[in-house]
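Page 42, continued from yesterday. The earlier attempt failed because a stray header line got pasted into the input along with the sequence. Redoing it now with the clean sequence only.
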Amino acid sequence: MKFSNPMNQLPLHSFAIVLTLAGFLTAPVVQAQAPAPKRSAKAEGGEPKYIEGKNGEAIEFGPEAAMIRIPAYSELRPLNGTTVCAWVKPTVETKGKQTVFRIEDGGDRRFMAIGGAKNIWGLWFGLGIAGTYTEISAAYDPKKLIDGQWHHVAGTFDGKQMRLYIDGKKVSELAQPGKLAPGKPTIGSIGAYNGRKEPFNGGIDDMRVYTGALTDEQIAELAAGKEEPAPDAIVGHWKLDGNLDNEADKKAAATK
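This time it went through. Structure tokens are written below.
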């Protein structure tokens, strides 16, 4: 017994329509990708003063300088570990701290600074870890940091240890296990915080934030000016090279 194929009884134009509809119904649905969020910094209280930096240009800070504000976004506050680093060229030795980077959120703040406090002058790094705000410091001769040269400063936390680096060399570490606090959505800043408090005096260049702790070797590579050691881990990168763009936005847009 032969069975007739109903498709053979369709006119050619109907057959084409059936194929077209079948292909349309089985094709994967492609959703439009939203553009990467704009997370560039913004200047407040004036225009930033650009100077010759370690790489390209940098911004000169001081008590009356423009404030550089960073928008709040969750990637900037990873939970399992982080690295904060920048090139600095301080010009004044102060008794108090000079802000390099800060997200002021009470006990959940994240910050890096140079300067003096608690009879120590040097590099400071603070994080809210496991419900406790913890600071690590590294005493450092101000004459070695305020010498007219650019210096690389970095702070890391890997879930167990906080570490500080100057010019690629580890200068302090502190055991403090736990997770980082996510905190509230809080605007960050470079060079000062909350209305020019604890202003930095001098230049800041190439401000970076990573998710996770860079290794000793990776920090040394950054200080030596080598190629980006952890491109997939960088979540905030302000070159301050004549603008306030966030290079992390460009990377996110390129991967869409």
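Notes: The first strand starts at residue 42 and ends at 44.
Reminder to self: strip header lines before submitting.
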